[in-house]
């Protein structure tokens, strides 16, 4: 601070109380306008006078009249108070504004686990808008393109906060009509071509069986199963009652199942945001194993 501008310890709230008292003329009216006790207004004005080393008011009865020093300072203080009020309104508007939180997840999680639960989220968190992105990569977190990621493998990066939510299960399904009309030796298969652990497990389970369709879309596999194309790999969560699909055991007495853990992942600094924390808490509650009764 320059030598000719000593630090007076000026409190901007004192300035606001000073301007309000000038405008309202009495302590009672100023206190009502500021929603404080009249003693607070008196104390604030006294603090401002002490900070400036000037007497700003003459008190006549219950009214406060500006001194010459007070008159000279009031014009500047009024503009300052105007800017302060504008800043307060802007801050309030930003606190109330809808906040967008970006969540990335594999399509299987978005479509069959998260989407059915969004109505409940928006009913309880109307001030947050979710931006959902279909992705199975972690680079969107590292590049800060997403606030929260749901992943089917546990990341090892030390700067990430990771929580296991539940297990996803996958198995083979067919329509009842296909199983009725097709002998076991003639079974044909629909599976993934994604070259990950799940697709390798599926291929190992199919063995030498003929694959009619290999793709990276469970919804397409489900449509193929429904049309009687063959036996296909599906997430257990995607199989709804009334679809007339049957879990198929290819080799064992019981239908084979592949289990894969689902993790919630975010950066340590991001989770300090109240909005991000609210979304993370919702995801933990909605997608954890304890909240999915009747699901694997």
From TrEMBL:
The keyword Transcription regulation applies. SUPFAM superfamilies: Periplasmic binding protein-like II (SSF53850), Winged helix' DNA-binding domain (SSF46785). PROSITE patterns: HTH_LYSR. Keywords: DNA-binding, Transcription, Transcription regulation. GO terms for biological process: DNA-templated transcription. It comes from the Bacteria. GO terms for molecular function: DNA-binding transcription factor activity; sequence-specific DNA binding. Residues 10-67 form the HTH lysR-type domain. PANTHER family: HTH-TYPE TRANSCRIPTIONAL REGULATOR (PTHR30537), TRANSCRIPTIONAL REGULATORY PROTEIN (PTHR30537:SF3). Belongs to the LysR transcriptional regulatory family. This is LysR family transcriptional regulator. It comes from Vandammella animalimorsus.
